[in-house]
Amino acid sequence: MGNYRIFLFTVPALLVLGTFFLYPIGLSLQLSFTDFTGVGIPEYVGWKNYERIFTRSRYLDALGVTLAFTLVVVTVQTATGLFFAALLHRLPAVRDLCRAALFMPAMMSFVIVGYVWQFIYSPFEGGLNSLLAALGLASWQHSWIGDPDTALFALAFAHIWMFTGYTTAIFLAGYAAIPQEYDEAARLEGTSGWQRFRHIEVPLLAPSFTINIVLSTIGTLKTFELPFIMTRGGPDGATRTLSLHIIDSLFGDYRFGFASALSMVMLILVVVVALVQNRVLRAREERAR
Amino acid sequence: MRSPSTRCIAGTAALALCATTGIARAVTLEVTAWKGNDAEPAALPELIERFEAAHPDIAIDFSYISRTDTDIVLPPRLQAGNAPDVMMTDMPLVKVWGEAGLLAPLETGDWYERLDPAVKQAVTIDDQVHVMPLEIIGMGNFVNMGLLRAAGIDAPPTTIDELKTACTALADNGVKPMIFAGGFSAPLFAIANGLEHDPAAAPALGTEEVAFEDNQAFIDTLALFPQLVEAGCFDPEVQAGVDPWSTGLAEFKAGNFAMMPQGAWNIRDFSSVDGLDFVFAPIPSARDTGVALDLFGVGWSISSQSEHPEAAKAFVDFFTDETHLQALLEAESAYSPFVDGASGMAALAAPYDEARAAGGTILFPFGVLHWPKPLEAEIFDSMTGYLLDLDQDPSEVLSRWDEIVEDQY
Fold it and tell me: Following CA atoms B6, B7, B12, B13 in sequence, which dihedral angle do they give, to the nearest 10 degrees?
């Protein structure tokens, strides 16, 4: 009997989990089978919302855009964060200052960042095109967020600029956990800086990789802010993510039932990707030990 | 004999009772709107003061809630039976909230009879009216007359031929002729010209009865785009990437472009720019006068849960009086929704006024629910896509609109 009492301690956590996580998910699932408009009494419509999602190319295109955006952001942001962390680890005199400077964009509002980058990418005297002209590269001038071939990358760059400091901070915390003796021993063996980075630091940073990749993947899969502010999903759907479809369906179209169905699809996507990533990255951590 | 302190207490109690009775008689009416703040006052603070002076027993508790936040903040309050007494609404909100029984049917009195027939038809759903319209806002072509005159043109273009001539002259003069952003300006042009031939076709197009892809007027309108490009009006690939709500407005204000289809709500902002010599004209079309694309924007609705329906009715009725409404119209650069109503448009909108007077008015189909709201975003997307590849078959572009309409039924 006494053994069961220990489970009583989990009750508060289970209550919070049930009330704030499981209940809303259950409610969304229920709403996804209705035509709820946000007010009034919803009517059951069966699988109609899901049928629409999987038979209309625009939603599958949005899924593709979301995955492509996530792949680019997570890969480049992790690599850039690692680069800056490795650099700052070797420059202790400016480490704190640079870490704060790199982290600053992450503290800014998405709205401000979106508008600033929108003007940087503007085809008319925008900052980037003006810079190219000043460098004698006027032929490279381009409508960066107006061309479907470059719009997603332009948004990804702004997103990476915003969150690289965050990734760098996590990697720097990982560096702090690497015992100094490993580095000293490697130096005595006559290893080069690249060899120490490749064979000692990268394997021992495995937990930081896991945290960075999982967090940025989940955050990026759900992203809608920069596409919403900078392009409204355009040009012609080139930057329309699943989250943006959800927002548009909810507010403006008043299709809460349909938006709930889209949310369920996105939830499944995020959970599957996060589980697979977590398993692969944890296995990598085990191998590094 | 009573002591002085007893008399004092009795007097204080009597005063308190009077005061309480006075407060109990006063009604506090909660009103929400997405106008009335510093950025877009719409004369509401002044009008609320006037209303309170005229109705000393009613106090107004006014809250500004942006249009976007209205979608987020008010539905939970409406569902919970805690809605504001009077709310600013537009037709998409009226449809959703009215169908759910959350808006009180308004008495169709004198003001209803005075409504513009097209607006009257739009606000009457199943013989009930849930919104008292406040204004009609024009959507037309902003024209920088300084740049046009420098190119040898003295009047804003109202026909397609005049538009092409103006574009060529401007381009030859080294001026970028037109902002034609796929996200708003190009759709305005397409809708105005598509419906100009037969404005009465709008309801049928929005309900699957008639397909856009088979509508010759819309096909011909999209076929005009390459001709405009040929005349030098715009670079389609650049315009596909222009944000009509930031970059587009900034470029026109800076005098970098000569024309831009947009809404009259920008007149106030543009007028504050020193040296910007502009007029607000109709959208060029096959019709000599051009098209005045009118948007039925906002109105007042009363919550069906209001505890003060009479006071709410008095507030709504206050705005049906033209002497009060005029202040709002002037602040908004808008037209009255009443047939006998005045205009709040500035003198620089005379070309647009002339098009309206000549019968060149078309009601924006989304403002009166002729077309489903989700179609708006698809039109913006598809126009952008079309600008990126003008070799597309117009019918195929329009079939995307039909797919969205089909999704609604």
Answer: 70
